[in-house]
Amino acid sequence: MTEDSVGSATPPLAIVGLACRFPDADDPADLLDVVLTGRKSFRRLPPVRVDLADYYQPDLATPDATYSTRAALIEGWRFDRAAFGVGPAAYAAADPAHWLALETAARALAAAGLPGGDGLDRDRTAVIVGNSLAGDTSRANALRVRWPYVRRVLTQALAAEEVPASQADLVLRKAEGLYLAPFPAIGPATLAGSMPAGIAAGICAYFGLRGGSLAVDSACSSALQAVASACTSLVAGDLDAVIAGGVDVSLDPLKLIGLAKAGVLATADVRIYDESPTGYLPGEGCGMVVLMRTADARAHDLPVYAEITGWGTSGGAGPGDARSVASSQLLAMRRAYDRAGVDPAEVQLIEGNGASTQAGDEAELLALCLLRSGARQPAVLGSVKANIGHANAAAGAAALVKTVLALGTGVLPPATGSHTPHEMVSSGEGRLTLPRDARGWPDGIRLAAVSTMDGETGTNVHLVLRHEPAAPPRHGSRPRAGTAAHVYAASSPDADRSAGPGTPASAFGRPGSATHEPMPFLLHGADRYALTSALSRLADTADWLSDSEMADLACRLARDCGQQGRAKVAIVAARQEQLAALAREAVTLLPHVKEGRLTVRPGIFASDNADGKVTLLLSGDAPRATDRATGRAGIDAAVGECLDRLRWLESLDVSAIGAVGHGLGALAGLAWAGVLGEAEAADIAAKRGQFLARPAAGEHEVSGETQAADDTQATRAAEPNGDRQATTELGTTIARKYRLGPARRRLISTMTGRPVTSVDEAIALICSGFSQGDKLAEAVSAGA
Predict the structure, then answer these.
(1) Model confidence pLDDT, tens digit, residues 410-429
(2) pTM recorded for the entire structure
């Protein structure tokens, strides 16, 4: 990329402050952590948000119902109205979206070094907020004022049933009290608190900003439409600073049922840019950025987290064939790159819309492939919707914050939600990649893009961003593991945090799993009663955990199991509802567990006062030694595999009190028991291979001489004691060459069904050739 190709058309605009609150992400650093670790914030909708007992039906044809039960929700947020000087009446009158947006705007100003708006020209600072539906409070206000309609319906029903007038009046008065009780009375602030326009106006009023306020509603692209509008005003010189972004907390039955009838909701995992997309899951949240002209930001020594160099919008392409939708999206993209003076083939990260529907993903991928035709370098593609859901009017804000963080930290994030990449990605046509692990940016100026599209209205927005590290990255420099988010939050946005190209994922924390893997949940108690209480709590709460919280719980319980009570239960589950069901089943199972014994049911392992001791079964089978190379390689591999597994168990602090050695597993068992070393075990395995491959008396060593020779060798492999003289010689060689010691651990042979207690027994076991033995049942019983 040449210096002349960057930002030549439009003066760049600086993002000098940013803040957000999304599911599992209370701030930008948390959002980066969610993305880098592949966390997924989806959970079952709780009754306090939407009572699925009223609205859920798996059949899509059921009217006024949704077939999906999951969403990504903000948990535990409370607006500190005292800190903002908001009285109880005003607080109750306005929708929560107003307060979430006000709080987030305040945090964005603080991140810019402009707390409370200090340092801004308030007459030339505006607020532009994307919001499509204000949320629950506005819907509740509408319900309250509909009481006359409900009263008429009830009156008609009572009259139809010939209920006496005196009784009907009592029923209506009771119904009116019950109906109106949950809804605050309409007051002077109610109307403004129910409208999207009031969100931006309220932020302006609180900070004394007089440059103007605007609410933008272009459905899913609202937040980026707000940012694009802010950019246009700044370049035109109408404003000097703008707080822009989006907010959406409008998860309610109307939205969920409408999305269900459109058929765009997922029921389990979200798959984006996948050959089998699933639909998306709703989300919510708020994201805000503070924008200024870069020259002004530098002049006032404000932080520059990233620069917006181009933006483009388009519309007029509602639901239709992929090519017409792609054509409209392509128009917005090309407008953005023309304005930025950037070749789209040079962009290294694309934060896509990620509709996760067949039509939506195909249209976007087609547009990107056409845009990047002939690109030489690959671009990382992804969508934060796979982590935190589709936040509707705030979706673009989440995408923008994620991209700014990736630019500033020098981390190209992994793509969550793609199991088998779509053909337009795997074909390499647009040079797009969906990496499973984080990696470092290439050296030099970093270019990225952000897209949002609304499939119903056909509105599209595309932004082009850049970030130039303050200094060239040192060769091989990379952040410490797991620190990217925290370093970003604590240091200057202009400080370089580059990692060299090809930096492994481990440098940026743990990679997230793309699928729901079964996880163990380890619970214990001082007795069965205490354990029953813990299991009951788990059964009550498991349904409401998010996917990432479920993994967190499994990790926490595993760390807790160091000091265990006598009563123990392990549950293996992959889904929240499965975990809850197994916990309930474990409660009913506990009274029937026999003391000192392990009781097993599918997905449940329970015990009371069991010693918790482990006996290993070491088994290794070599392939038929029909030629020298195959025989030796097979034997070496079998022993080596056993030894590797033993080392792995020891790394997990699994300390066995005994082992049953079966076949070649007995040779690995001798090394485990301390009779001989691992190197000696490998050497003996090799010599055994040579012995098995040696021709019998009267055979020719020419390969393929006769079928009889092959059969004889195969027989020897199965019955290595056939040559007793050779066996004796082997025993003598072993006794001379190797220093064998007494067993320090209990090893039981399936040849004898008894423990190996002396060096002579170990030599005899080696000389036996480690045939499978006929005492397997006795050996396993002795081990148990």
Answers:
(1) 999 999 999 999 999 999 88
(2) 0.76
